[in-house]
From TrEMBL:
It comes from the Bacteria. Belongs to the UPF0702 family. Residues 93-161 form the YetF C-terminal domain. This is Membrane protein. It is found in: Cell membrane. InterPro entries: DUF421, UPF0702_alpha/beta_dom_sf. Keywords: Cell membrane, Membrane, Transmembrane, Transmembrane helix. It is a multi-pass membrane protein. One of its GO terms (cellular component) is plasma membrane. Pfam families: DUF421. The chain crosses the membrane at residues 12-32, 44-63, 69-87.
Length: 197
């Protein structure tokens, strides 16, 4: 292979990539409209896995002759179909959702770092500190809770105003927040609603 063909490629291949790109993009938009907004969300670890798989199918279809374009479109349809069906099953049967989703895990309760939970999540104290910095936390006393979500994202909840304890429903280790939540002002949903209106 000479260097100029390696850099440029042949015209037929370039046209093939352009046509494949346009068709795959159109198919992607169509499937996204049919399946709905959840298509690219990271609501669960499963959604994230599907998004990665979609990217892989798109890249393979664009840059290789195999799989052919039609096979790539069928692959997209199958992945979107799986995601749609799994999302419906998760809504209908909470037991199914618990089976396929990780449970959110409490990493900090107030200023207290929960080392055993960090170990379960395979997160180091340095990782946790980095997430606190990214959230704009300047002192541990600002922290109400840190939760590793089912997607692997880390949510930092600061001690700003009262927080509804129901926010931590389904979080493993939420009982460790009892003392921290008791220190905050009483949550009044009516007051919060009128303030946001």
């Amino acid at each position: 292979m000479n260097q100029s063909s390696w850099l440029a490629g042949d015209l037929g291949s370039l046209i093939g990539v352009v046509v494949s790109g346009l068709v795959i993009y159109a198919a992607l938009m169509l499937f996204t409209r049919l399946v709905g907004l959840r298509s690219f969300s990271k609501m669960s670890g499963f959604d994230f896995a599907i998004t990665v798989a979609l990217g892989s199918v798109i890249a393979s279809t664009l840059l290789n002759d195999k799989p052919p374009l039609v096979t790539g479109i069928v692959g997209l349809a199958v992945l979107y179909g799986i995601q749609y069906k799994i999302a419906r099953l998760r809504r209908s049967w909470p037991a199914f959702a618990r089976l396929i989703d990780n449970e959110p895990l409490l990493l900090m309760a107030g200023e207290r770092i929960l080392d055993d939970h960090l170990t379960m999540a395979r997160v180091t104290r340095d990782d946790l500190r980095a997430k606190l910095r990214l959230a704009g936390v300047t002192h541990p006393s600002q922290v109400l809770a840190v939760v590793m979500e089912t997607t692997g994202d880390v949510a930092v909840i600061e001690r700003r105003e009262s927080v509804d304890p129901d926010l931590f429903s389904g979080v493993r280790g939420r009982e460790l927040l009892a003392g921290v939540l008791a220190e905050q002002p009483t949550f009044d949903a009516r007051r919060q609603t009128s303030r946001s209106a």
